[in-house]
Structure formats: structure tokens, C-alpha cells
Design goal:
D-Maltodextrin-Binding Protein, domain 2; globular; 13 strands; 431 residues; single chain; five-stranded mixed β-sheet; alpha/beta
Length: 431
């Protein structure tokens, strides 16, 4: 037990989702205590309330959307507070779920491709939207969990890959994760992109169908991180270091297949996710109930907690998230993406904690996305690391050496509000 911690009694926030598991496991297995910490886990209802409580010091830190420390540092969403993360908690974990009514309507549309189900369903949806427009029907309503969430960007990526304009062809709205099932049930939304277990719960309660996974839209995309304010880190560096070590051990424990069933039992408890263990187990094992579909949605990498260097806070992930904020009109100020990413995402904090635990660490801070259809080896590491696929549904690629290349070369969407010339100049790219 460490004797030099600045603060031992901590309150950490989480949302009732399958991927809050690292915090729950670290608490229940005594990993926080192993490093001298007394942690109280606090369940929050929405990402906005969790963000606000961390920003105002009511929580010491929290499970966060991968974009949340960035957005809060920039002041997007009404509150500005410099935040940082030294640890990613998980990859993947989301799914697009639609109402039974919309699912049946999609099945009635002729399939237009011989590609993956995710692509085929997207093209079916495009045809359906066009038919609805011609018939004078109101636009379909799809929900996601937060304006800058990866769920939001995954939903838009899936739609645009099928030629659907997310802002003109349907209506998008924000709903907290745990309320998605009731909104599908009462018909106030036609579909949603949400983290588990809420999509599977909709299937099990007979009110929705899983259409595709977030993994199918972007293989092994960043999902949750552990976030604190920069001020809190400056005041409690040793406590933060201890937290990161406990969470890294919890993530390692979770990625051992024999522990997934036990994790589902822990998460099912009322103070955590409060959902049936068998439903939670679906996401943890990647084996989902088929519902009305002819075949079940199965994905062994549906949620990843440790493997594939999952816990490393890649600066390139932060930069990709920033490009999405620009692409969809959420950010209008030209910024140096590399500078901001390095301020919020802190590989140095990860390396310090992981090295002390004897875990392998990448020796680079950025990697490309979209180049690997299968597993590959990262040689730029203390020990070569097995990495997972990283393809995107539309075949696009992200080059961290040219982070705004797609914004510069593709026709800008109507939502783009930044001066591209100024953005290119700040990021040292000829425009």
C-alpha cells in the first residue's frame, strides 16, 4: 500500500453500461484498496450530469466517453473545464438498434448489396427514407447518447456510408442510455446507437432488434476513458497514478474469457447496471440473441477491455474525434490538433502506470486507422503487441500525419463551420 497518496477517499462516477466494468471490477476485487485507495462508486443518470460533477469537484474522476475530456476542455456543451485522460477503458461496445416496426419495414426492402449486413441495412434504410419522402411521411427519428459521443459519430458514419444525409434525411436526438428502451417501446424513436446492455435489453423485452454493431462501423474504435480535471491531476498526481494502476489491472482481468461470466454477475447488481446478468453476458461474450433476425449478431471483439493496446490513450484517436467535431459543425475555431490532443490525452501517464505493473507499452503516440482488415503486430512497443482490425465501413483511412486530409479533399458538408485554410495552416498542411 502506498503511503504518499495526496487523497485516499475518492468518489468516482459511472453510467449504467456494460463498459463501466473496469470501475466495478477494481472496486469489487479490492484493486483500489491494493493501491491504498478507498473508492465510492457513484451511479449517474447522464453524461452531462457526470461531466458537470467532475468539473465542479463533486466527483474526483469518472468513466467518460472518449470525446468528453476533449469537448469539456474546449467548452462544447455549455461548460468549460480543462480535463485529461491517462487511460482508455474499452474499445467498441455499441450497437444500432431499431424498433420492431422499422425492422419489419427494412426487411420488406430488397437488399441492394452483397456486402456485410451493416452495409446492406444502410442501403435498405436509404431506399426506405426515399419512399417515405415521396409518400409525405415524417422523417425517421434516431437517438444517440451525447452530442460528441462516439455513438453519434458512428451513427453518422454508418448513415453517410449508405448515402444518407444525417441532418436532412432523418431526425437525430440525444437520450440517456438507460432510457433508450422506453423510448423504443413508446414509439418516440425509430432507432438508436447506444452502448450495451440497452440494445440487447430492447431485444429481450420484445421492443427492438439489433441491426449492427459499432465494431462493424469502425473495428476497435475508442469508446470509454477514465477522466479527471487537469487541476485534480496536478493536486493529486500520486492518487491518480494509483487509480490508473488499479484500472489497468481490472481491464486485464476483464479480458480473460473465464472472467466474463463473473463480470456479468457483478454488473447485474442494482447499484451498478441493474440489468439481467444473461443480457449483460451477451455483450461481454459477443453472442447476442437473434430476435426476429434470421441469424444472431456475433462478434468476439464486441467489447475489448485490454487486448490490442486498448488502454493506451492514442493521440491519433483524440485527433480523429476532433475532425468529427469539425465535420459535423460542432467546432468552428481553427486549432492545432496535435497540440490539443497532447494536452488532453496523456500517454506519459499511461506509460508510467503500465511500466510499473510490467505491462507492455507502445513507444509511439499515434497510429493510422482503416489500414488493417485483420490482426497485425505493432512493433513500435516495449514488446511487440498484437493489434486488432481497424477498418471503417466506408473504406476511409485516417492518417495521423495528415489529420485533416479528409476535410480538405472531400466536398465539405453543409455543417462545416471552420475556415479550412486557417485550420490547414495551424496543422502545417498546404491548402
Amino acid at each position: 500500500m502506498s503511503t504518499d497518496l495526496e487523497k485516499r477517499r475518492l468518489k468516482l462516477g459511472f453510467l449504467p453500461l456494460t463498459d463501466c466494468a473496469p470501475l466495478v471490477v477494481a472496486h469489487e476485487l479490492g484493486l483500489f484498496e491494493e493501491f491504498g485507495l478507498e473508492v465510492e462508486l457513484v451511479r449517474e443518470a447522464s453524461w452531462a450530469s457526470l461531466r458537470d460533477k467532475v468539473a465542479f469537484g463533486l466527483l474526483d474522476g469518472a468513466q467518460m466517453l472518449s470525446s468528453l475530456p476533449i469537448a469539456t476542455t474546449l467548452g462544447l456543451g455549455g461548460i468549460q473545464k480543462t480535463m485529461l485522460t491517462g487511460c482508455c477503458l474499452s474499445l467498441n461496445g455499441n450497437a444500432i438498434t431499431v424498433s420492431n416496426t422499422l425492422f419489419q419495414r427494412l426487411l420488406a426492402v430488397d437488399g441492394s448489396t452483397s456486402q456485410s449486413d451493416a452495409v446492406d441495412h444502410g442501403w435498405r434504410l436509404r431506399q426506405l427514407i426515399e419512399r417515405d419522402r415521396q409518400a409525405g411521411r415524417p422523417p425517421l427519428r434516431f437517438a444517440h447518447v451525447f452530442p460528441t459521443s462516439n455513438h453519434h459519430y458512428q451513427l453518422r458514419h454508418w448513415l453517410t456510408a449508405a448515402g444518407i444525409d444525417p441532418d436532412r434525411d432523418l431526425s437525430l436526438l440525444v437520450i440517456p442510455p438507460a432510457r433508450m428502451v422506453e423510448h423504443l417501446r413508446d414509439g418516440s424513436i425509430d432507432g438508436c446507437c447506444v452502448g450495451e446492455p440497452w440494445g440487447s435489453l430492447a431485444v429481450c423485452e420484445g421492443v427492438g432488434q439489433l441491426l449492427t454493431s459499432g465494431h462493424a462501423i469502425w473495428n476497435n474504435s475508442p469508446e470509454k476513458v477514465f477522466g479527471v480535471t487537469a487541476q485534480w491531476h496536478q493536486q493529486h498526481p500520486a492518487s491518480h497514478h494509483a487509480l490508473l494502476k488499479a484500472l489497468l489491472l481490472a481491464c486485464d482481468w476483464l479480458d480473460r474469457p473465464r472472467h466474463r461470466n463473473e463480470a456479468a454477475q457483478l454488473l447485474a447488481r442494482p447499484e451498478y447496471v441493474d440489468a439481467p446478468a444473461e443480457v449483460l453476458e451477451m455483450a461481454l461474450t459477443g453472442n447476442f440473441r437473434a430476435g426476429q433476425q434470421k441469424s444472431a449478431l456475433n462478434c468476439g471483439d464486441f467489447i475489448v477491455f485490454s487486448r490490442y493496446a486498448a488502454n493506451f490513450p492514442w493521440l491519433s484517436h483524440a485527433e480523429w474525434l476532433l475532425t468529427q467535431m469539425y465535420r459535423w459543425g460542432q467546432l468552428d475555431q481553427a486549432l492545432d490538433l496535435r497540440e490539443l490532443a497532447g494536452q488532453v490525452y496523456r500517454p506519459d501517464l499511461f506509460r508510467a502506470a503500465a511500466t510499473e505493473l510490467g505491462l507492455p507499452v507502445p513507444t509511439i503516440d499515434r497510429k493510422s486507422e482503416g489500414s488493417h482488415a485483420g490482426h497485425w503486430m505493432l512493433s513500435e512497443a516495449s514488446t511487440p503487441l498484437l493489434m486488432g482490425p481497424d477498418q471503417l465501413i466506408d473504406g476511409s483511412r485516417f492518417d495521423p500525419a495528415q489529420p485533416i486530409a479528409q476535410l480538405l479533399t472531400q466536398p465539405p458538408p453543409a455543417q462545416l463551420r471552420v475556415d479550412l485554410a486557417a485550420l490547414a495552416a495551424l496543422n502545417h498542411i498546404p491548402h
